[in-house]
Amino acid sequence: MNNLLITRIRNKMKEFSKGQKLIAKYIEEHYDKVAFMTASKLGATVGVSESTVVRFATEIGYTGYPELQQAVQEMIRSKLTSVQRMEVTASRIGDADILDSVFNQDIETIRRTMEEIPHEDFYRSVDAIVAARKIYILGARSSLALATFLYNYFNLIFENVLLVKSTSEGEIFEQMIRVDERDVVIGISFPRYSRKAVNAMNFAHKRGATVIAITDSPLSPLAKEADYALLARSDIASIVDTLVAPLSLINALIVTTSLKKSGELTQVFKRLEDIWDEYEVYEKVDEKASGSAL
């Protein structure tokens, strides 16, 4: 958990009232639950008023309870187990409609990402990608789906793109053996962070490549060695990894790079359409038949 938070609590412990000591003890022992509790719920759980919880937050140096709660959330991103995620998800949804709850959480995640992402870093990342000799894309575990999606489109836009297979660290480094300062390496990982992805990013950084991290927090181990950290929110309490915001960010990367190379891409896609038609890659839909069925 957040060492700064714990330090603040322990430095003030002797000055706390009885109620504040109950809050401090509960935070230390049940931080995974506190991360998603309202001030009112935390107060009711430990037997104090909501105002006592708010005063506790300001007493240890935060502007209010939301800032204290955010400090806990930021530091447990890589610590929640699958069992803890299930417990928190069930608690948050409660008796509400599950479908609506999931949609609303995803909407909120995208909204927060749009507000918080550093636009300047995003556009500088695009410039680096367009100028790169070779683009390496790496994503492990659930992030592999995002990496594959990005690769499929970048492979149409650029001539030299590699989707790094992350079956073992030895194979990762073999695929990246020629990476240098002319290249861009895009690493994608969200809690719980992949050790393979982190090590690959460190390797690319040491070789002088431009490193772009698509992750969730400046505290992410992927962000530490990155030249550009493109931060997208993920719902750390969800049973599954909620990757709607990272996917939106990747969509933005694809759209922006394709617009920068629109002159070249027009001819490429014309040739692709001819190939797809010739080899009947896509099923043709009879619009007249579809209309008559209505």
From TrEMBL:
Domain SIS residues, every copy: 125-264
Protein name as annotated: HTH-type transcriptional regulator MurR
One Pfam family this sequence matches: SIS
Organism: Caproiciproducens galactitolivorans
Domain of life according to the entry: Bacteria
Family annotation (InterPro entries): Homeodomain-like_sf, HTH_RpiR, RpiR-like, RpiR-like_SIS, SIS_dom, SIS_dom_sf, WH-like_DNA-bd_sf
UniProt KW keywords: DNA-binding, Transcription, Transcription regulation
GO terms, molecular function: carbohydrate derivative binding; DNA binding; DNA-binding transcription factor activity
Domain HTH rpiR-type intervals: 3-79
